[in-house]
Amino acid sequence: LCVDKCPLDPDYFGEDLNDGKRKCVSQCTLTDVYADPITRTCIKQCNYAEGYFGYSTTRRCVLKCPVGYGNPVTKLCTSACPESPIQTYGDNLTSTCVYRCPNNTYGDKTL
Q1: How far apart are CA 109 and CA 83, in angstroms?
Q2: Fewer C-beta within 10 Å: the chain N or C terminus?
Q3: Predicted confidence (pLDDT) per residue in 12-62, tens digit
């Protein structure tokens, strides 16, 4: 059956495969795409404006990285926040890399 949007139950996403076929998949198979819960498709970059980061382990867009921090530059989950081009710090409350730590917290690049 041809559908305009892959189903939420079961949890499927539309993927454009290398052989030209388009189909609903339970996990994005190509290495450079992530399952987007908003569009129900496999996309190259998660919707950062909506707060999503790409989590490489599951190939899904997530609101909170299960491990590490969401990097606002790469839009991906990362184990450590980048020091370049600008120093960022891991905010344990939001699980994101921030340029300025929240009130009552301090950035410590030695951790």
Answers
A1: 8
A2: N
A3: 999 988 788 899 999 998 888 999 999 999 999 999 999 999 999 999 999
